[in-house]
């Protein structure tokens, strides 16, 4: 049986912390920033953690 390959698109978007949580960046922070409020852009700048339900799926894809 062959090795399981890493899903490269997911590996670029998600990272696993030392505690095992999956860290993500918010989307919608590239274009049309003049239309968004300063509060919304400030929120989008910060990272976030995936919910426990999604964490198992993503960890399988990136194998960490």
Structure commentary:
With 64 residues, this protein is α+β, with helices and mostly antiparallel strands. The chain has helices at 8-13, 38-45, 52-62; strands spanning 14-16, 22-25, 47-49. It has three helices and three strands. A three-stranded antiparallel beta sheet has the order 1-2-3. Helix content is 39%, strand content 16%. The mean pLDDT is 93. A hairpin with a 5-residue loop joins strand 1 (14-16) and strand 2 (22-25). It has one domain (8-62): Factor Xa Inhibitor (Irregular), CATH 4.10.410.
In short:
By secondary structure, this protein is α+β, with helices and mostly antiparallel strands. The protein contains 3 helices and 3 strands, in the order H-E-E-H-E-H. 39% of the residues lie in helices and 16% in strands.
List the main descriptive attributes of the protein structure presented here.
Factor Xa Inhibitor, 64 residues, alpha+beta
Give helix % range: 25-40%
Count of spatially separate domains: 1
In what range is the share of β-strand residues?
A: 15-25%
Mean pLDDT: 93
Q: Extract low-pLDDT stretches.
A: none
What is the end-to-end distance?
A: 20 Å
Q: Number of helix segments?
A: 3
Named at the architecture level, the CATH assignment is Irregular
Sheet having the most strands: 3 strands, antiparallel
Looking at the structure, the CATH topology is: Factor Xa Inhibitor
Q: Quick one: CATH class?
A: Few Secondary Structures
**Total strand segments:** 3
Determine the structural class based on helices, strands and strand pairing: alpha+beta
């Amino acid at each position: 049986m062959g090795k399981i390959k890493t899903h490269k698109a997911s590996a670029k978007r998600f990272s696993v912390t030392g505690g095992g949580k999956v860290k993500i960046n918010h989307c919608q922070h590239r274009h049309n920033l003049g239309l968004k409020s300063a509060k919304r852009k400030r929120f989008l700048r910060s990272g976030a953690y995936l919910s426990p339900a999604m964490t198992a799926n993503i960890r399988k894809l990136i194998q960490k």
